[in-house]
Amino acid sequence: MPDGIIAINLKENELMINLDANRKTPLYQQLYEQIKQKIISGEYPKGTRLTSTRKQATDLCLGRNTVENAYDQLCVEGYIKSRQGSGYIVIDVTSALLELSGIVDVEPTTITASNSVYEEDLFQQNHFPSACRIAFRYGEMDYRTFPHTLWRKATAKVLSQTNLEDLYSYGDKQGEMPLRREITRYLRHARGVRCSPEQIVLGSGFQDLIRMICLLLKTDRATLAMEEPGYDFTRILFQHHGYAIAPVNVNSMGMDSAELQNSEASLAYVTPSYQLPMGVTMPIQQRMQILQWARKVDGTVIEDDYDSELRYRTQPIPSLQSIDKYERVIYLGTFSKAFAPGLRMGYMVLPSRLLPAYHQTFERYKSNVSRSMQFVAAEFMISGQWEKHLRKISLINKKKRDILVHTIQSEMSDRVTIHGQDAGLHILLELNTTKDNQHMVDLAAQHGVMVSSTQQFWYNRKNAINSMVMLGFGGLSGDEIVEGIKCLRHAWFD
């Protein structure tokens, strides 16, 4: 056996686990991939109890943390679940749904980064006094993390080496091919997205991309299924284009697929990797049921992959598009979280079946994205700085998240419950109080701190959770987070 290869015969299933320490892929990810494939293939059937983390670590000569990381990833993706006193148990993943999804083709996710955004102001319904000195505003990035020097160098190189005629002409309506190639490469590697550059369409942010989707998919009786609660700005955009809204409740697994089946919708908008605002991750079974619904009704699923790769306990979850065998998913992403919303640059991946309709609908359209900025972004990615920057901001935001959670726990203790703390750039804070969330928002503002009510996320406001507020932390420093939480404790509880 070559050096670095570890093999063990699992007694309960007599199946081999082969790990190669010489590969670049981390050992925990190799273990995760092999167990996942054995579950998919049926070698580990429903109800199988996995080897305990302690014994698995001993048998494979690994650290226990390595095994726990692999098991945690399988848990969050919905392949296994942890039972008190019983260890880790394999969950049912039916062969029919696996055939539908084509999940055997999913590539592992290896990059930790953020590649989508809600750059519009979620909180325009709240009016905060100018005295608010600390704003827990969702959707903002810390300008201090922007790679100013490297971006300036890439800009200078583009301006000095690019033909001026290319900069002053309109360009391709889908976006510049060098950038589309780099986006394709990145998405394949980081999110498992299966696409070609011809499927990429650049747009000037989320609003522009949704506008194009509305025009592309509009029918006389167009109905959009929306997560309830869900991103209110998406709902507003579709309503402005004449779509009816079918709210579908969010449960512990994301959008309720059974409720979706009973709706009149043929179009669904979902945030499966980290549901906004509840922070739920959609497990593999639920994802496959959503795809099964789309195929059954000849429908389309819009996957907004916002904050998907900012996970703090596990690796990023493979995209819904990556398991879509029948081209039912439109995938949305952006550069705004990694760079700045002011650059106005996002993208979508259209399934091949929609490309003819896209070219017909937008035949006379021009790209709304600055051509020079597209060339600069392509240069930044080609040079390798993109992935380095993503790793940097991921680490920075994890530290901010840790500071936020630790400070809340030390300052507020059992007076609050934290939701969605394992990923993303926001948390939900459920207050153990009889006062409604708008009152708590107002109290915070009186003490110089901005937080947001979550009421606007519910289509049916009467169903909203009244004791919950949202805190975004991406635009704040660690010191500002600590000061803000101390002010909130004083405003709410002292």
CA-CA gap between termini:
66 Å
Question: Ranges with pLDDT <50 over ≥5 residues?
Answer: 1-14, 95-130
Strand content: 15-25%
Could you name the CATH homologous superfamily of the largest domain?
A: Type I PLP-dependent aspartate aminotransferase-like (Major domain)
**What oligomeric arrangement do these chains adopt?**
single chain
The share of residues in helices is 25-40%
Number of domains: 3
Mind describing the biggest β-sheet? 8 strands, mixed
**What is the CA-atom radius of gyration, in angstroms?**
23 Å
Q: Which fold name fills CATH's third level, the topology of the largest domain? A: Aspartate Aminotransferase, domain 2
SS summary, helix count? 16
Question: What is the total tally of β strands?
Answer: 18
Shape: globular
CATH class of the largest domain: Alpha Beta
Q: Whole-number average pLDDT?
A: 83
Structural class: alpha/beta
Overview of this structure, please?
The chain is of the alpha/beta class. The protein has three domains: 89 residues, Winged helix-like DNA-binding domain superfamily/Winged helix DNA-binding domain (Arc Repressor Mutant, subunit A), CATH 1.10.10; 120 residues, Alpha-Beta Complex (Aspartate Aminotransferase, domain 1), CATH 3.90.1150; 239 residues, 3-Layer(aba) Sandwich (Aspartate Aminotransferase, domain 2), CATH 3.40.640. 38% of the residues lie in helices and 16% in strands. It contains 16 helices and 18 strands. The protein has an eight-stranded mixed sheet with strand order 6-13-12-11-10-7-8-9. Helix 2 crosses helix 3. The longest helix is centred in the C-terminal third of the chain and has 28 residues. The N terminus is likely disordered.
